[in-house]
Request: fold
Amino acid sequence: MNLQQNERRNFLKTAGAATGGILLGVPAIKSIAVATPTSTPPQIETPFHGAVLNHRHGKKVAGGMLVRVVGQADAGEKVTVNGLLARRKGRAFEADVVLRKKETPIVAVAGNASEQAKKHEIRVIWDRYSRPRYRFSIDDNSFFLRDIARKKPKSLFDCFYLKILQDLNKSFGAKFTLNIYYTTGDGFSLPDFPDRYKGQWRDNSDWLTLAFHARADKPDRPYQDAPPEKLIADLDQVSEQILRFAGEETLSMPTVIHWAMTRPSAWRPLYERGVRVLSGYFRPHGNSYDINYRMDNDRSAYLWKHDALMDFDSGIVFSRVDIICNATPVDKIVPTLEPLTNDPNTAEIMDIFTHEQYFWPFYQNYLPDHARRLDTAIRYVTEQGYEPIFFHEGFLGGKEPV
Reply:
């Protein structure tokens, strides 16, 4: 195990202990036997900088939510957290902070009055109106658009793929965002799609929306090293077509860029185009992480175990995908989701995901039970009390009560 992995393991242990202290009444503070360096700044270990906190991470109090702050500082030094004296034991410190606004700075200050103060500052987000919710996103969409453009059916839902989604909406109230390509790469592109169904798109936009995914399926990872200008140009081209044939009610800002890999320098331009959430896997890959928008290792490690994280520089919240239905057999879907619903760090938002191509019999990796997989996943989260949402409505789909 290298140093980075060891530090991550220690962080997760500390974070787990802190969560247990809040939720289970178990003391979170422990003495840590570490050699005391000379005059080091304090270090807040939990919450994590950019953490999105909901009712599962703290305790409701009048006008806010109380959360526990845990960290380390030189032994024997006085530590204050947001002006309140922290509890000390060895190098460890802890304090309680009440969140009253959506964004809250948390500042730990250490040192005696005769010394120059040392401090560590983080910021966290309070998901004040959070509730258990799920969103369903489908990537790589192009085949159904080509099929409808060529066959010109009377209704969009004469296409079996959209009919499957419509039936899931009628059964469970499910909502879907379809992330689409500009072209299938075989002669069909979005300008070939007629606008004759515009009214039908509008009438179903409360549960079915369209968003940019990429210009085409190939090459793989098209925006991993591309300049932001290329990504934005492709986004604008697809959005223009969605507006033309489906209307503004159906247009959703993207939440998944193809392969979930972009230059970090593209995040702010995406925000300026209306993007507020980006979903990825943030999965370990050797000594690094992948499918993570090229995010740094520390934050990727956090997202691998948590629902969401705010990037303050861009304004975008990153969300971790919880399940990929086309990669999860029917009998593994509930065992995959159930542990996530029991973990306070992953339980509040279910980010459910699949790919269009697995619905089509001509596709080489066609899944005859693909529709059943979606039904199983949606049925389970519905039975657990999760509501369907779109990420672009409210904060991560958590709208302020009327």
